[in-house]
Design a protein that fits this description.
single chain; 411 residues; alpha/beta; Rossmann fold; 60s Ribosomal Protein L30, Chain: A; 3 domains; 7-stranded parallel β-sheet; 5-stranded mixed β-sheet; 15 strands
C-alpha cells in the first residue's frame, strides 16, 4: 500500500511502464496507530517495531506497563488519530465499534493518512472512507473485510485506484490450516485419554450434579461483568480487576464464577472470542491483574459476588434465577448511623428491591436525598408490572444508578 506495489504490478501486466506515477512513501520513522492490542495487534506491533516505526496504541483493556513492554505508547483514541501516519484496526465488531472509523474520526486524522482494516467489516464507514479518499484526506487504504461480503459488482470503494483489497483472506495459509488440524487432534486425544478439556467454548469446569445450582451464578457473573464493561467504556483503561465471591458458593464454584465475570468484562473489547476458558489467559496477555477474593458470608442475601475495576457491580441470584442489585453505597449506612442520633432509632433495614430479569436498562442521574426509590419502568418498551430500582449515593453531587425491566432490548 505505501509503495503502490499492487497498482504498479497491474500497470506492468497491462504493458505499461509508469515509474513516476507510483511514487510511494517510506514507513521507517513513521507513526503507526494500533486500535486494539490483542493477539494480532501485538504481532503487528512487534513487526512495526522491527521496521523502525513508532507505535502508539489505543485499547481500553490493556495497562500502560503492558503496552510499554510491547514498545507501544498507550494514548487516547483522539490522540492516536492526530499522531498516526498509518492506522490499523484490530478490534471485534461490537455495537461500540460499529462505524468507529466514520467521517468524524477521519476528520481528526492527519492529511494523507493510510488506513488498514483486516479486522471486521462494519468498523469502517465505507462511504466516509470513499469520500476521504476522494479529497485526499486518506492517501491509501488496505481492506481485507467489508460490510457486505462479497461486495456488490462495481463497488466504488473496491474499484478505487488507491485501495488495496483482498477477499477476506485472513489466516488462509497452508500452515494455518495444518496447525488447526493438529490442534484439534491433540485436543481430542487429551479429552479421551485424560478427560482434559482444552479451548472449550463457554464451558465452565463444574461437576454435572452442581450445574443446576451454579448456573444462575455463572449467568449473573457474566452479566455483571458486561455491565461493568459498559460503565468503563467512557474511561481510559484499567490495570486491575478484583472479583469477590462470598458465601458457600465461593467454595463450591468460586473459580468458574470468577472466570464467567472476567469473560463478561473482557468480551466487549477483545479482538478474539472470550469465554470462561480463555478469559484468564486473555487478561494475562493484556497485562490485566486479576484478584479473586473469597469471604465466608455475604451481605443482604447470604451470598453475593462483586466485580470491581474502578467501578463496582454487585448482585445475587434469587429464587427462579431472578437477579437484584444487592448493594447500596457505604455512605447510605453512614447516613443511617447519623439518623440514629438525630431522629432516634435507625430506620428498619429496607427489604430487597424489585426483581430485575430479562432485558433491563440502567442509567445514571444526579442523586437526590431520599434513598432508594421504586417505580414503574418507563419508556417505549415498558413492561407492565416491571420493577425499577434506584440506587443512590447521598453525598453532594453524587450520581445515582437506576435499573428498570423492559419488555425487549431497546437496541
Amino acid at each position: 500500500m505505501a509503495r503502490c506495489i499492487p497498482q504498479a504490478t497491474a500497470s506492468m501486466k497491462a504493458g505499461k511502464w509508469e515509474k513516476k506515477k507510483f511514487q510511494g512513501v517510506e514507513i521507517t520513522d513513521k507513526t503507526l496507530g494500533l486500535i486494539g492490542v490483542g493477539n494480532i495487534g501485538r504481532i503487528v506491533c512487534e513487526r512495526a517495531r522491527g521496521l523502525q516505526m513508532n507505535v502508539v496504541a489505543y485499547d481500553p483493556f490493556i495497562g500502560k506497563e503492558a503496552a510499554e513492554r510491547l514498545g507501544a505508547e498507550l494514548v487516547t483514541l483522539d490522540e492516536l488519530y492526530a499522531r498516526a501516519d498509518f492506522v490499523t484496526i484490530h478490534t471485534p465488531l461490537t455495537p461500540e465499534t460499529r462505524g468507529l472509523i466514520n467521517a468524524e474520526a477521519l476528520a481528526k486524522m492527519k492529511h494523507g493518512v493510510y488506513l488498514v482494516n483486516a479486522a471486521r467489516g462494519g468498523i469502517v464507514d465505507e462511504d466516509a472512507l470513499l469520500a476521504a479518499l476522494g479529497d485526499g484526506k486518506v492517501a491509501g487504504a488496505a481492506l481485507d473485510v467489508f460490510v457486505k461480503e462479497p461486495p456488490d459488482p462495481g463497488a466504488k470503494l473496491v474499484a478505487h485506484e488507491r485501495v488495496v483489497c483482498t477477499p477476506h483472506l485472513g489466516a488462509s495459509t497452508e500452515e494455518a490450516q495444518e496447525k488447526v488440524a493438529v490442534e484439534v487432534a491433540e485436543q481430542m486425544v487429551a479429552f479421551v485419554t485424560r478427560a482434559e478439556v482444552k479451548n472449550a467454548v463457554n464451558l465452565a469446569a463444574v461437576r454435572a450434579e452442581l450445574l443446576p445450582r451454579v448456573t444462575p451464578w455463572l449467568d449473573l457473573a457474566g452479566k455483571l461483568g458486561s455491565l461493568l464493561a459498559q460503565i468503563l467504556l467512557r474511561g481510559f483503561g484499567i490495570d486491575e480487576v478484583e472479583i469477590e465471591i462470598a458465601g458457600e458458593i465461593g467454595e463450591v464454584a468460586g473459580a468458574p464464577i470468577a472466570r464467567a465475570a472476567l469473560a463478561g468484562l473482557l468480551r466487549s473489547f477483545c479482538d478474539v472470542p472470550v469465554n470462561e476458558v480463555n478469559a484468564s489467559l486473555v487478561a494475562d496477555e493484556r497485562g490485566l491483574r486479576v484478584v479473586e477474593v473469597k469471604r465466608a458470608r455475604g451481605v443482604n442475601f447470604g451470598a453475593d459476588r462483586r466485580l470491581r475495576a474502578r467501578r463496582r457491580a454487585r448482585g445475587a441470584p434469587l429464587a427462579g434465577a431472578q437477579r437484584r442489585p444487592a448493594r447500596r453505597h457505604r455512605r447510605r449506612r453512614h447516613a443511617a448511623r447519623r439518623a440514629r442520633h438525630q431522629r432516634g432509632p435507625a430506620p428498619r433495614r429496607p427489604r430487597p428491591g424489585p426483581r430485575l430479569g430479562g432485558h433491563a436498562v440502567a442509567g445514571r442521574r444526579r442523586a437526590r436525598p431520599g434513598g432508594a426509590r421504586r417505580g414503574a419502568a418507563r419508556g417505549e418498551h415498558r413492561e407492565r408490572g416491571a420493577g425499577q430500582l434506584m440506587m443512590e449515593d447521598c453525598s453532594p453531587g453524587a450520581r445515582a444508578v437506576a435499573a428498570s425491566n423492559v419488555s425487549q432490548s431497546p437496541g
